[in-house]
Amino acid sequence: MFLFSEYETFWIFLFISSLIPILSFSISRALAPINKGPEKSTSYESGIEPMGDTWIQFRIRYYMFALVFVVFDVETVFLYPWAMSFDILGLSTLIEVLIFVLILIVGLVYAWRKGALEWS
């Protein structure tokens, strides 16, 4: 049986948290100036007038370099909680972390051999 009294705090919180973004977007849309001019459709490049076409192609190498960085950066964050509680967790966790680091090293070697770390 669903009882409203057991979940009333949840439903009130859900209602208010849904209402706040809806109201803020509605008020923003109502009060925002609508000026569709040539300046509005140009790209903004740090205050400098854009030169050339704004739709240029980037090489995939830049994206691969960024992805490799993000993957290894996020994975090293997982090592911090382990390092903080190393003395409590014991030998089995040490073996698991060594396997984790080994997988990271294998991924790094793979990315290195594929040329994902070269910035040329």
Structural write-up:
It catalyses: a ubiquinone + NADH + 5 H(+)(in) = a ubiquinol + NAD(+) + 4 H(+)(out); a plastoquinone + NADPH + (n+1) H(+)(in) = a plastoquinol + NADP(+) + n H(+)(out); a plastoquinone + NADH + (n+1) H(+)(in) = a plastoquinol + NAD(+) + n H(+)(out). Pfam families: Oxidored_q4 (PF00507). This is NAD(P)H-quinone oxidoreductase subunit 3, chloroplastic. The mean pLDDT is 81. Helices cover 63% and strands 0% of the residues. The chain has 120 residues and is an all-alpha fold. The chain starts with 7 loop residues before the first helix and ends in a 6-residue tail after the last helix. 0% of the residues are buried. It has a domain at 60-119. The longest helix is centred in the first third of the chain and has 24 residues, at 8-31.
Mean pLDDT: 81
Biggest β-sheet strands, sense, barrel: none
Rg, Cα atoms, Å? 26 Å
- The level of helicity is 55-70%
Pairing-aware structural class of the strands and helices? mainly alpha
DSSP strand count: 0
Distance between the termini: 65 Å
What fraction of residues sit in β-strands? under 5%
The number of helices is 5
Coarse morphology: flat
Low-confidence stretches: none
Secondary-structure element series:
HHHHH
GO molecular function: NADH dehydrogenase (ubiquinone) activity; oxidoreductase activity, acting on NAD(P)H, quinone or similar compound as acceptor; quinone binding
InterPro entries: NAD(P)H_OxRDtase_bac/plastid (IPR023043), NADH_UbQ/plastoQ_OxRdtase_su3 (IPR000440), NDAH_ubi_oxred_su3_sf (IPR038430)
Enzyme class: translocase
Membrane topology: Multi-pass membrane protein
